[in-house]
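=== Structure Prediction Worksheet ===
Name of assembly: unnamed complex
Input type: mixed (protein and possibly other molecules)
Chain count: two
Listed entries:
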Amino acid sequence: MGHGGGGALSAELTRHLFLPAYGGETLAGLADSASVTLGGARLAFSTDSYVVRPLFFPGGSIGDLAVNGTVNDLAMSGAVPAYLSCAFILEEGTELSTVGRVAQALGAAARAADVTVVTGDTKVVDSGHGDGVYLNTAGIGLIPESVDIRPQRARPGDVVIVSGPIGQHGIAILSVREGLTFGTDVVSDTAPLAGLVQAMLAATPEIHVLRDPTRGGLAAALGEIATASDTGVVLDEGAVPVPDAVATACALLGLDPMYVANEGRLVAFVPRTHADAVLAAMRAHPQGGGAVVIGECVAEHPGMVVARTGLGGTRIVDPPLGEQLPRIC
Amino acid sequence: MKYIDEFQDPELARRLLDEIARTVTRPWAMMEVCGGQTHSIIRHGLDQLLPDTVELIHGPGCPVCVTPLAVIDKALEIASLPDVVFCSFGDMLRVPGSDRDLFRVKGDGGDVRVVYSPLDALRIAQRTPDKQVVFFGVGFETTAPAIAMTVHQAKRLGVRNLSLLVSHVRVPPAIEAVMRSPDCRVQAFLAAGHVCSVMGTSEYPALADTYRVPIVVTGFEPLDILEGIRRAVRQLERGEHHVENAYPRAVSAQGNPVALRVLREVFTTTDRTWRGIGTIPDSGWRLSDAYRDYDAEHRFDITGPAAAEPAVCRSGEVLQGLIKPHECAAFGIICTPRTPLGATMVSSEGACAAYYLYRRLSPPHTEEKASVD
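=== Predicted Assembly ===
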């Protein structure tokens, strides 16, 4: 169970089981999407599967996630996403009207993200062997000349920017899955980020790293970047934007917002000299209005993320082991 | 909606820290009883900000940590049975028994479910009458009332397929056990606010008198904890030893009468074994005779053999405040959250896990010290 949580256990499964079995240098980069060359063109290529419960939640659905998740994985290498595939795995007995709603949501999300679904597949599994609908999407996009964005490129002196408030998707899902209410509705942040990335690249091509902090949250994303680049990250904990409702829900459940999933946010590592231009471009874009600097990349403690607490202490922000588990009390 | 920011204000924290520093004239050691407080202290770096003369000793108040290996093994055995739905709070799932944990049981096909409230287990029992639903009743006085209410409701509704595996513990006898230890260095206690929000403060004056120790009921946010420390230091400096309530927004002297009523109807006190510490008289809750039918240990024929704790693990001393986590030779070397030897490393509230997660940048010991026999 923990191996699917996007944390250290997921990473181990990939490094110690999948990579040795597959081989291949492109995989070894372990970015959100692979960069490949085909006929002279630099392509980004990515796939992801979606098993979210429930299928519809505040702010979106599995259909939106299946488009936005793959579009965002492509965008995190600076690519302009172009085409998607989509495979439906349906549990026997699922209402066709439900499948129809998912397909409609998927189509609408694809149009909003300016990508085209060009191929697909449908399979049906026995009743009891799925949660209604599972989706897999794969996508390809073109990486512009002069763009080189990957986790290994983080450098001491980069500033770390997050595009908006964190934790909304994970708490929105939890609120409907477990029937919990937190005094106010929390809506998923699911959104396509390719347009935001293009706006950032228009401000400067000097963007070193982009990552969308999905499963495992900000902590997992920053931990992966620190490890891949062998640098340290220092976060200003007070600067990390956490909506009040998310903070309250996390406090009630004993969760840390740094580890809660997002589906419409990105973190960027940018040279300090370009940070103002990137921030201005982000804030002018609908998906980046809440962009703020949350920390910096340092030479000290390579591979580790450290937070300066609001009160002046420090703490390590480790990658999560697996899923976060709510505390007893 | 703001419930948290007000209690993390850096300016107010600085003022409290300054006042503590001005008040202290000599070294003092105080114990925060609850693992939630330990977690907050380490997470916010409060111990780094206090004067060196104020030492915080981490107490035994982590319910995950103190649940004995034998009880974990019983849980694993019951959860593995066919036609059993085993319900637990989330943080018990990674706690290792002798040879596996609840995650492994789930992976092997056991029906193990994380619930957010014990009442969820009652609903599952009502929806699946052909299954035996077992709830893992772990925790201090904080969780006991909701679990007691669940059993009370089950009996009232005639739900017969629900039972509890009970391992509840009580805080005041643990404080007494700490004070009775010949190695005890604790000079004041920060009592757990959420425990007192249920139980009130009536159990504490006798302890404060007997052991001549200040007890300050304290909350969990940084300002709560600093205020608790400020009051404890003030008492120590004045040579006083009484009970103070520094968490009045949640705690009244009489506690929660509704919770207490159901607690006393469903549970009765009993001797309880604490993992790493041993048996503490009268330190636990068990189901009262009227609710004995709901006791999973009676309902299921389980014998689970419990292996001994690893000899190198010093979690018992950590739980009693006798050593800090990094003083254990195994800490961070062979004992990590991924490969825990003791429950203090497993639980997110455990002192060892808190030190590992938030503090291992400064290597706690040298290679020689790290060698483990």
